């Protein structure tokens, strides 16, 4: 496929907000892609060169892109700067300056040139990168240069969801939507949709079915649902394993020979700041092992675990060794996915746990979590009270018969946290969809309130749930305004359903956690709306700043909100009884 064709698909995607139309455009684009092209096409649609765990980024700051445009189209940087201030979109500016209507660039060629730019590093690399991008822009047509520029800036913003990509791949290649489930299973195991798509194109669904866990490719993490009480957990799961819930950062560890990699909850490669852990992992007497754990910093003198706020200081790029010696990490292993040649992911939890216990002891830098197996709510409650007294966050109850649910949040894992008096003592993660200008004293801060939403999995859209106007400091409001202005868009973004129009729409990118007093029914918000009545948060306030550890895929779902609403009713009734 020529890149100009892909650019036309981008343009069509940009101009629609309807999911069905997006789906049709994607199916068409996929039908037009060859085996060699499908991988880069999928990556372009996901707005990346490679999945995050490869650590490959284009690394062009706005200034560098501007210099490349200046070189490619012989316009002074001053002039470009003033145009940029006025328009705020370098892609649009490149489109205007570029007079070429046509080009012969191939998709694969553009991808590999962008890859070369990304891989250029070291001294003098900035200038090289600028020249390479200028060269590419020079060869491209108007429309192509618009999207190349936006891509290098991380601002393609086509708003295509992974779920829609998977469905469209199935339709394009198999003629029906039935393959989506298998594609998703493979994606959950290797976290690389481009790779799965390529396999689909090479060997059909049979090839996709053969994809399995591969050391060094992170598995998309299993996530937990929540319930408000020990009784509810037992009535849902029956006899279950009750695991300690640690409040550190999630670490998925892969070892293959001497090669060790550790991935975060967001599947970023965090090996570089886990130097001390890597050494310990290397000592494990197994050639191949993959396990899921939580890392916490601890005080060596008193042998006590530090709270999250301290542990998180380990996540840094510089002075890694120094911080590692001051704040050593301990890993608490709560699941095992591979041991030597045995892939354990589909085995029931009880079997995985047995293997886990044969590998990890109760002490040391890498130790297993402590569990209780019970079908008795009072026993569960006692264990919970005990771990909370010990300073932990709560428990995660686990279905003894369930496989590891890669990439899914379901009731195979159920969390109960110390802060749950009612469900809503816990925070809800929402995505920022837009903002309102402030009034009065707020004018100066630039933002009066944020419009936020949750994710509707069935419809693959974001639905609004609240306006959040408190919880941030003045400084944070100012910082937010700056960050949000970088991602503002002219119209309601694709895949956002809203009855409210904020003063400024933004591309769904940033996640915040909020607390609320209650979930109420409301005609104002689209979350879970039926017959014009949706769900809303009452008195929402932000907790902390932007959650850099979470992506928009991690926000709470509409289903969860409805569940919380129903549970909240139960909690209220229980309180009345008391
Ligand atoms: P939270 O903010 O409550 O940690 P979350 O959205 O990050 O929520 P959840 O799926 O709700 O993730 O809860 C599971 C998280 O809890 C995991 O991502 C993991 O980091 C952490 N965790 C700590 N201990 C355990 C355990 N024993 N089993 C599973 N997850 C655990």
Secondary structure blueprint with pairings:
Blueprint: H1 3-14, H2 19-31, H3 35-45, H4 62-73, H5 77-87, H6 90-97, H7 107-119, H8 125-139, H9 142-152, H10 162-174, H11 180-190, H12 193-210, E1 223-226, H13 230-237, E2 240-245, E3 249-256, E4 259-263, H14 275-283, E5 288-299, E6 304-305, H15 308-311, H16 320-326, E7 329-339, E8 342-343, H17 349-359, E9 366-368, E10 371-374, H18 377-389, E11 394-399, E12 409-417, E13 428-436, E14 449-456, E15 461-468, H19 474-485, E16 488-489, E17 496-497, E18 504-506, E19 511-515, E20 518-522, E21 534-538, E22 541-543, H20 558-577
Helix pairs in contact: 1-2, 2-10, 3-12, 4-8, 6-9, 7-8, 10-12, 11-12, 13-18
Residues 221, 223-224, 243-246, 250, 265, 294, 334, 369, 396, 409, 415 line the site of adenosine-5'-triphosphate.
Beta-strand residue percentage: 15-25%
CATH fold node name of the domain at 223-420: D-amino Acid Aminotransferase, Chain A, domain 1
**If classified by CATH, what would the architecture of the domain at 223-420 be?**
2-Layer Sandwich
Largest sheet descriptor: 8 strands, mixed
Helix segment tally: 20
Shape: globular
Number of strands: 22
CATH homologous superfamily placement of the domain at 223-420: DNA ligase/mRNA capping enzyme
Low-confidence stretches: 573-578
Mean pLDDT: 92
The CATH class of the domain at 223-420 is identified as: Alpha Beta
CA-based gyration radius:
25 Å
Ligands in the model, by name, code or SMILES, are: adenosine-5'-triphosphate
Keywords:
578 residues; alpha+beta; D-amino Acid Aminotransferase, Chain A, domain 1; OB fold (Dihydrolipoamide Acetyltransferase, E2P); 8-stranded mixed β-sheet; 7-stranded mixed β-sheet; 21% strand; disordered C terminus; binds adenosine-5'-triphosphate
């Amino acid at each position: 496929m020529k890149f100009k064709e892909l650019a036309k698909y981008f343009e069509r995607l940009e101009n629609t907000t309807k999911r069905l139309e997006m789906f049709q455009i994607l199916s068409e684009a996929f039908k037009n892609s060859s085996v060699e092209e499908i991988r880069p096409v999928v990556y372009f649609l996901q707005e990346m060169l490679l999945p995050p765990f490869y650590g490959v980024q284009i690394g062009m700051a706005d200034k560098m892109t501007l210099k490349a445009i200046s070189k490619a189209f012989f316009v002074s940087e001053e002039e470009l700067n003033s145009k940029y201030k006025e328009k705020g979109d370098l892609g649009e500016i490149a489109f205007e300056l570029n007079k070429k209507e046509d080009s012969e660039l191939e998709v694969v060629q553009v991808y590999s040139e962008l890859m070369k730019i990304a891989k250029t590093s070291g001294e003098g690399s900035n200038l090289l990168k600028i020249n390479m991008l200028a060269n590419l822009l020079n060869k491209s047509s108007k429309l192509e240069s618009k999207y190349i520029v936006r891509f290098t800036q991380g601002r393609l913003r086509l708003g295509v969801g992974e779920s829609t990509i998977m469905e469209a791949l199935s339709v394009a290649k198999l003629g029906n939507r039935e393959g989506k489930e298998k594609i998703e299973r493979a994606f959950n195991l290797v976290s690389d949709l481009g790779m799965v798509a390529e396999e689909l194109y090479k060997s059909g669904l049979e090839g996709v079915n053969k994809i399995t866990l591969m050391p060094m490719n992170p598995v998309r993490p299993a996530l937990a649902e929540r319930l408000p009480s020990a009784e509810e957990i037992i009535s849902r799961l029956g006899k279950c394993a009750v695991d300690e819930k640690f409040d550190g950062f999630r670490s998925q560890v892969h070892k293959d020979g001497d090669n060790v990699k550790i991935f975060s909850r967001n599947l970023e490669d965090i090996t570089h700041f886990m130097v001390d852990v890597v050494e310990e992992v290397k000592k494990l007497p197994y050639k191949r092992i993959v396990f899921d754990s939580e890392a916490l910093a601890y005080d060596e003198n008193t042998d006590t675990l530090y709270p999250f706020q301290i542990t998180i200081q380990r996540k840094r790029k510089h002075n890694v060794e120094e911080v590692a010696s001051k704040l050593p990490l301990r890993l608490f292993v709560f699941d095992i996915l591979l041991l030597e040649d045995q892939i354990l992911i589909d085995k029931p939890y009880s079997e995985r746990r047995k293997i886990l216990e044969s590998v990890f002891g109760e002490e040391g830098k890498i130790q297993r979590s402590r569990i209780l197996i019970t079908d008795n709510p009072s026993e569960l409650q006692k264990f919970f009270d005990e771990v909370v007294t010990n300073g932990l966050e709560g428990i995660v109850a686990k279905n003894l018969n369930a496989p590891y649910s890669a990439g899914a949040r379901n009731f195979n894992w159920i969390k109960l946290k110390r802060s749950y008096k009612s469900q809503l003592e816990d925070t809800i993660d929402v995505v920022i969809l837009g903002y309102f200008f402030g009034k009065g004293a707020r004018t100066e801060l630039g933002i009066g309130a944020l419009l936020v939403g949750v994710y509707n999995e069935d419809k693959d859209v974001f639905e609004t749930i609240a306006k959040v106007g408190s919880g941030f400091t003045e400084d944070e409001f100012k910082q937010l305004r700056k960050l949000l202005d970088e991602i503002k868009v002219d119209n309601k973004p694709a895949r956002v359903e809203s009855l409210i129009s904020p003063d400024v729409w933004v591309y769904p990118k940033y996640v915040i956690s909020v607390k609320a007093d209650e979930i109420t029914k409301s005609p104002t918000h689209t979350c879970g709306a039926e017959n014009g009545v949706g769900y809303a948060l009452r008195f929402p306030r932000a907790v902390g700043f932007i959650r850099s550890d979470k992506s928009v895929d991690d926000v709470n779902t509409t289903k969860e909100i409805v569940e919380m609403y129903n549970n909240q009713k139960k909690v209220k009734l229980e309180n009345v009884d008391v």
